[in-house]
Amino acid sequence: MSKKKHSEHHEEHVDESWLIPYADLLTLLLALFIILFASSQTDSKKYNSIMRSLNQAFSGGVGAFESSNLIPISTEPNMEAKKYDQPTSAQPQETYSEQQQLQKEQKDLEQLKEKLDEYINANSLSAQLDTKLTEDLLMITIRDNALFASGSANVKPEAKLLAVAISDMLAQYPNYRIEVAGHTDNVPIGTAAFETNWDLSSKRALNFMKILLENAQVGPERFRSIGYGEYHPIDTNDTTEGKAKNRRVEVSILRSVKSPQIKDVPK
């Protein structure tokens, strides 16, 4: 009697074995929806990542959502750095444009030097004026006795013609910056007008620059003046001739592009 009751009680339990295939079916449906969703996206990288994750999940591997402490070994460890080292398509064009600009400046300054030299020779000014073309600039050096009386910063009336001629030539090359610099010898001045050679050289440069700027064709934004005093000599101050060379005004036409390949052009 007791055995019969026990058997009946056991048969009352619900059979739950159907849950296993049902869970598998839900998993497959979830995987299907994920694949369909991924297929509708344009990002192929995300799609490939999801596919790899699903394959690894069903095969018992490591999925994309599981962390790993392993560092993958690249066949080319500097591949990322090499990518940025490669020259871009814009670099050759920039280099070419700079080279063109360099050649244009060289041609311009050679032409300007030739015009200045012709003017100097035509007016017999070779003892007072000099031109020099370097890798940085074209420099016009003017002895102080051609422009000023001793100890004075007032430009001589006859020297104004020289300033006008130089200004007319500079107006033909409007893309260059101009520096006007004054220099003295090392003899102290100490006058009422100028306390030091700094003051004298600065005022001389400024006064000569003002005459250059009287030409309406010359843009004043291109110009600057500076006084160097006695501290940039080009000759010895121990002789009268050396001191005379050191007293000067320099008008420099400055390059915007410089190259070490450009050598000094002989005078």
Supply database-style keywords:
267 residues; 8 helices; disordered C terminus
Average pLDDT over all residues: 81
What would you call the shape?
Answer: rod-shaped
Give the helix level as a range of percent: 40-55%
List the helices and strands in order: HHHHHEEHEHEHE
Largest pleated sheet: 5 strands, mixed
Q: Based on DSSP secondary structure assignment, what is the total number of beta strands?
A: 5
Taking all Cα atoms into account, the compactness measure Rg is: 43 Å
Which percent band covers the strand fraction? 5-15%
| Low-confidence region ranges | 62-75, 262-267
Helix-and-strand structural type: alpha+beta
Number of alpha- plus pi-helical segments: 8
End-to-end C-alpha gap: 135 Å
- Which strand order spans the largest sheet, edge to edge or round the barrel? 1-2-5-3-4
How would you describe the overall organization of this protein?
With 267 residues, the chain is of the alpha+beta class. It contains eight helices and five strands, in the order H-H-H-H-H-E-E-H-E-H-E-H-E. A five-stranded mixed sheet has the order 1-2-5-3-4. Helix 2 packs antiparallel against helix 3 and helix 5 packs antiparallel against helix 6 (159-171). The longest helix has 33 residues, at 90-122. It starts with a helix and ends in a 13-residue tail after the last strand.
